[in-house]
Amino acid sequence: MAENGKYLIGQSLREKLKSTIAKVDALSPGAPVTRIETAHQGMPAFNPKTFRVCTFTGTWAIDTAKTVTFRGVTTTPNTVSVTNLVCGLAPTGSCDISVAKEGTAWYLIQPNLTQQPGYSASGTQVLTIVNGSLKWIGTTACA
Questions:
Q1: Residue of 6, 31, 134, 143 with fewest CB within 10 Å of its CB?
Q2: CA 114, CA 112: separation in Å to the nearest integer?
Q3: DSSP 83
Q4: Separation between Cα atoms, residue 14 and residue 19, nearest integer Å
């Protein structure tokens, strides 16, 4: 039964499962293969959105793709090509990022801003764009 696009598991589904299992159990060993009726009409297509945390090194200009590595995945394939539509990045080392998959393409969602050049855990800073890439600048430099 569908309610607001959600499919509920209940007595009706349970009875249909029991009926299907009974049909399969009633087949004699070596019987020819038969088809069990299934219906998928009216069900929304399953289109999962995938979110992952990855790492990359080097500079990454806006509107370009870069091969990034899934964080914590050591078996191959553990890389994917991701398009940066967010901002230019030039981290000082390896940078953690959040990415998401839309259809078959992967996109940058958010970089770890603390890994951008000039970041300090103390003092007051502003995040700015220098030569197309994000960079932290201390406010004492503005005085």
A1: 143
A2: 6
A3: E
A4: 9
For residue 68, count CB atoms less than 10 angstroms from its CB and return exposed for 0-12, middle for 13-18, buried for 19 or more. buried
pLDDT by residue for the chain (143 residues), tens only, comes to: 445 545 556 777 788 888 888 887 777 777 776 666 666 666 676 666 689 999 999 999 999 999 999 999 989 889 999 999 999 999 988 999 999 999 889 999 999 989 888 888 888 889 898 888 889 988 875 65
Residue 125 CA to residue 98 CA, distance in Å, equals 23
Q: What is the pTM of this model?
A: 0.61
Find, among 85, 123, 81, 127, the residue nearest to 104 by Cα.
81
